[in-house]
Structure formats: C-alpha cells, structure tokens
C-alpha cells in the first residue's frame, strides 16, 4: 500500500507524466495506491487514463474522490473519472483563471481599439 500526499510538490511540471506512469506501473504490479493532489496536470493525466481505459486494457482501475464543504458539513464525492465529479475545486479554479485571463484580453482590445 502506498499513501502519497502531493507527489507533484516541488516537481518540474514536465515530470508529471512520469509520476502518472510510475503510479500506474505500481498499480499494475498489485500496489494499492492512495494519492492526494491539488495538481491539475496529475489529476487530469490519471483521469484521462481512466476515461480511455478501453485503449489500454492494462490500465489499472481508479477511483477519484473530492472532499467539499456543504451546509451539513464535509461531504465526500467519488467517481470513476474526474468529469463525473461535480465538486472539483481544481477544475473550478482553472476555469476562473481562464475567465480572468479572457477578461483581461478583451479589456486590452478595447483599450487598444
């Protein structure tokens, strides 16, 4: 059993692919793995492997979890892939960042025009 908290911490983003492959290799060898991450690239890399598992049947089965606050307290949501997770704070934050970037771009066009 491997518990790995934030494997991407301090890691150059170009090595996220290697971490994802390494985790899958360990899982194929029979290791049960629990990964806690806030990293978009790692979570998406693992989710894509799960989503397109039919292209590589040796891809290990995965389960994704999200912990979030509600009026009733902390809740846990789980699914076989990330797109099935409704409360995905990583994706939500990237969407907000993209929207902010887009707003700046359109404001700059108005200033220049």
In the sheet with the most strands, the strands line up as: 1-2
Overall form: globular
Low-confidence stretches: none
Order of helices and strands: EHEHEEH
Q: Which structural class should the secondary elements be placed in?
A: alpha+beta
> What about the largest sheet?
2 strands, parallel
Indicate the mean pLDDT. Answer: 93
Rg is: 17 Å
Helix content: 40-55%
Number of strands: 4
Secondary structure tally, helices: 3
- In whole angstroms, the N-to-C terminal distance is 59 Å
| Strand fraction | 15-25%
Description:
- There is one protein chain.
- The chain is an alpha+beta fold and 113 residues long.
- 43% of the residues lie in helices and 19% in strands.
- The chain has 3 helices and 4 strands; from the N terminus they run βαβαββα.
- Strands 1-2 form a two-stranded parallel sheet.
- Helix 1 links the parallel strand 1 and strand 2.
- Helix 1 packs across helix 2.
- It is globular, with a radius of gyration of 17 Å.
- The model has no long low-confidence stretch (mean pLDDT 93).
